[in-house]
Amino acid sequence: MKPNRFPIPFLFLAILALLAALWAGLMRLGWQLPALTPSLALAHGPLMISGFLGILIPLERAVALKQKWMYLPPLLAGLGWLVTLLLPSPPLGPILLNLASLGGVAILIEITRRETALHTVTMLLGALTWFAGNLLWLFGWQIFQVVFFWQGFLVLTIAGERLELSRVLRPSRQSQLLFGCIVAIYLAGILIATFNLQLGTRLNGAALLLLALWSVRNDLAWRNLKHKLPLTRYIAWCLVLGLTWLGIGGGLSLVFGAQIAGPRYDAALHVVFVGFVISMIFGHAPIIFPAILGVPINFQPAFYIHLILLHVSLALRVIADYANWHTLRMWSGLLNEVAILMFIGMTVYSVRKSFAEK
Ligand code: HEM
To answer: What is the CATH number of the domain that holds 239?
Structure first.
């Protein structure tokens, strides 16, 4: 592996977006913190989705495909979140974020053109939902009305990647068909939610639950829980816990239906965004970062500390949300963030050590 420092400024912008989003998340939980910019608290969602992950996901592809133009979308996402925060009068920031997601679609069109398969089409659909959500947001739709599109970006991207990585299990035609049907129900849920939020939310929930159940038979992660290699075992735990939260999130949306604000809105969103997405990031980091930077991440048993902290604190946050227990919600949300910061700290430490040794 050859060390590659070129993506470092992009990663720096992504981590900065994450830190700003975490600060905003604490404000939204009720912690009394200085508002660093007037729009910070309200920008939490866009910063997480289009800032942090909108840089990271296209960046991984730009590095993998070694195409210069593919660095443009992560660059636009980086400029977009900065402008959204620093120039409060829209729409320049949202326009840049729209262009970033349009670039994300272009990258996936190229990937799908090179290899037309169920997993690439799923990821393309994910990029399209990101763009569609951003477009509606630019035209003034409320975040609770577009959040399923943003969720679609992350869920379909990760589902597509998992499908690709699980190809070694040679999924049967039947299970691929089932996967395709679940994706179709999921997309129908997102579209229906734009005019019938209740029905759309329940369909969305049903699809997430089905996807989690589908993974039990078809995702490699479940078989690797007892793998003899410690890193493979750790990754499997991250993925299985994430998939479990995906199923729980689906179940909650199916049973309780649409939420547009308040603690139950918080639970419905973060069971998927923190429980599923962040756990998947914890699990994929030891694969993605070496691919981006060309240096290994050495597994440490201490990685389990942030993993356990993330899931225990999220369980407490969901309990607090449903019990309307404000103080517990504030503290458990804070601990979610501590877990993420510990993960970032350990990853940066491991990467720096590997660069120093090269
Ligand atoms: C890890 C710590 C996090 C904390 C403490 C946090 C906190 C919050 C809070 C308190 C809200 C408002 C909920 C309400 O209205 O009651 C919120 C909304 C939201 N969060 Fe998070 N969040 C976190 C992580 C994430 C992540 C990882 C993502 C995405 C990947 C995310 C995406 C969103 C979105 C899209 C909204 C909706 C924003 C809106 O309606 O304005 N959050 N978050």
So the answer is: 1.20.210.10
